[in-house]
């Protein structure tokens, strides 16, 4: 199994190019099969989740040509059935986007129930409510969601909970439904807007994405398009947080600074210097940072996907900080791992009470999920001594070339394969087998 071996203590300094947004890419890839014409998608991040999604699409007949590492030509004309049997798809949350895409185009879909990061209860009742409201019959049988309709008809849907996934799924199911659909209490995340822009570039008629009321007028069919996915807000935020935690100076390039405001506002509050230009944000941290209170909220609030990275940073800042998780009910699992590095954090329900310690100390730690895994790597990079981070397959689901980008910033991090090789690395780095 691959692991990261990290020698902490170097401030991370330099520039890093941010890739396409994973969560936008997953929705856009699924939506690309909604036309029989060829769609070209650029800026697709080369991460495990996007690759699993494309394998599942190929398993039902989509033709996918890789033009370069981040560009794909996708043609859904030869999709021969709407039953996804691909085993890998169960492991990713975004498998559910294939329900909206297939139901929207073929009025029929059978997709295994989503997996993904274990962050607590992750219901899909709002997706099902939306599909039913458009006229579909939806059942969950033998681990799959089975959705079918004779005809989909526009409808007025009020989401009981702000949900990124349900908003995106209902948009996809509604774009070719007869008449008008209104989604109220819609999610406003940048990837919802990106998906709507993509579908509009294919001839859909979606208005209001980015606000909490989205209006869709059904069109008979969609056509070809060339589209570039937006930069990844969370990948960029993770590197900005790494600058703060290691008392470094990092510029993230190829970003939309507006999407990062909710993140860097907190960094500025705890004492970082923040500089913003057209497509870059720089965070400079000199000395130990201060404390604050953070509550995760739907966009434009502080993102839940940045909560572990923020907590890790506050864990070595001065004073007592409070972090409240209001989106998921089990997103503090990594705190036990961080305790092994000397943190002083108490979790009560959905709130973490953080007493900043001077420094973390290196330890062997497990990545419990994608963002928590990235946060623990940041902790290890800031720590005194050596850490080994295991279960990094979670991190690879969402960060392209994570260790390579961190190396470029001066981080002493290596990807090492096999337990024996890690042991050798421990005894004498000269004998280790370092993959890259
Ligand atoms: C998306 O998950 C992202 N995943 C998550 O990113 C992100 O954490 C989350 O949105 C919140 O921003 C993808 O885009 C693939 P939700 P999703 O539906 O769509 C409840 C990452 O690290 N809910 O907005 O599953 C739900 O339980 C990942 O990249 C219902 O009750 O999130 C949660 O408490 C992890 N019923 C809240 O809403 C529903 O039908 C928000 O979930 C749907 C959701």
Rounded to the nearest angstrom, the distance between the terminal CA atoms is: 14 Å
**Rg value:** 22 Å
Query: Tally the helices: what do you get?
Result: 14
Number of strands: 23
**Domains counted in the coordinates: how many?**
2
Architecture of the largest domain, according to CATH? Alpha-beta prism
Q: Give the proportion of residues in helices.
A: 25-40%
Largest sheet: 4 strands, mixed
CATH superfamily of the largest domain: Enolpyruvate transferase domain
Name its key features.
UDP-n-acetylglucosamine1-carboxyvinyl-transferase, Chain, four-stranded mixed β-sheet, 436 residues, 23 strands, alpha+beta, binds ligand EPZ
Q: Could you provide a short overview of the structure?
A:
With 436 residues, the chain is of the alpha+beta class. Helices cover 31% and strands 24% of the residues.
Structure description:
The structure is a single chain. It is built from 14 helices and 23 strands. The relative contact order is 0.15. The strands form six sheets. It has a four-stranded mixed β-sheet. Strands 2-14-16-15 form a four-stranded mixed β-sheet, with helices on one face. The protein has a four-stranded mixed β-sheet with strand order 4-5-3-13, with helices on one face. It folds into two domains: 3-19 and 231-427, UDP-n-acetylglucosamine1-carboxyvinyl-transferase, Chain (Alpha-beta prism), CATH 3.65.10.10; 22-228, Enolpyruvate transferase domain (UDP-n-acetylglucosamine1-carboxyvinyl-transferase, Chain). The chain is of the alpha+beta class and 436 residues long. The structure holds ligand EPZ. The site of ligand EPZ has 25 residues, from helix 1, helix 4, helix 5 and helix 11.
